[in-house]
Amino acid sequence: MLASAFFLIILSVSKISIGLQLNSQGLLTEGFENLTDLIKIPIIVVLGLKFKKDKLASIMIILIMIFTGVTLIWSGIENLLRQEIITPTVQAYIIGFVSMGMNSGLMYLKGIVGRSSGNLSILSDSKDAELNLKLSIGVLIGLTFAIFKIYFVDALVGIIIAVLVFKEGIEILWELVKKEEEFDITSIKIYADSIYENRLTGYILGSIRRENLTRKRLIENFTYGLKHGRMYYEGFADFFYKELGSEIAEKHLDKLIEGGYIELLDKQLFITQKGLQAFYRAKVKEFKQRSNKIDAGGHQVYKSLYCIIFIVLLILIIVFAPQINSWFASL
Questions:
Q1: Which of 158, 123, 157, 131 minimizes the C-alpha distance to 66?
Q2: How far is 320 from 147, CA to CA, in rounded Å?
Q3: Which fold does the domain 2-187 belong to in CATH?
């Protein structure tokens, strides 16, 4: 939460100042949206963490997300009907890319922390960070079209993103409110889930490929391995994902069967050609990651070189920003 507050203050001040300078509604809207995100931090800390009203805190965050979606739709329509000139600059692009990087980091950080701690409000905040990432991408698209004097794209992209945000917010809110029993936290899908899902997919497909298994036997093996993994490796066995268990493994197995990766014949599980292809692709990715971690000499030199090139290019862009901005204006 401290990390969120720190980055949100930096982003909101930068975007609002650059947005006023450029007259970019997309950048201004994104800046004020980041500023209002600061309200969510005390909601999570006080309601979600201190008073253990996790579901209430999550509902409030989703309501703010829906309200943001509505206001973005309204402002986007206004700007579409009353188009204003946007002047793209190097500074705006730098802020846009920095925003993308920070929001991506916050999205994954909040997703992993929320999933590992089982905290619903932090997971909901991860969805909001995803909204900010989409807005940053939308602003960059709008700025690029503005170079060629096509100004309506900035508002149009904003409306499309806002509609998607509103729709997703309503769906999550409906799931939160309609169920009287304990809310299934796994129904909120986040980007960080790909870590667990990729490992689960590899485990399930690899297990079926090695030996003939029934559904019951596969889940028993999974539960046994997870239990001993947690015993000897603690949270590192499951990426500190305390909700991970047989129920989630069964749901994931059902998804693989529905997707055509696995067939169920006479109570036996069989891997299909599609599943076999997915298994080998997963293995290629896994071995590639392992090979990248092995320092065979020379890797650090290349990484240092790439870093130096990036820094030099960034410095040149900042130094020649006035000339680049003049070129943008001349197009």
A1: 131
A2: 17
A3: Alpha-lytic protease prodomain-like (1.20.1510)
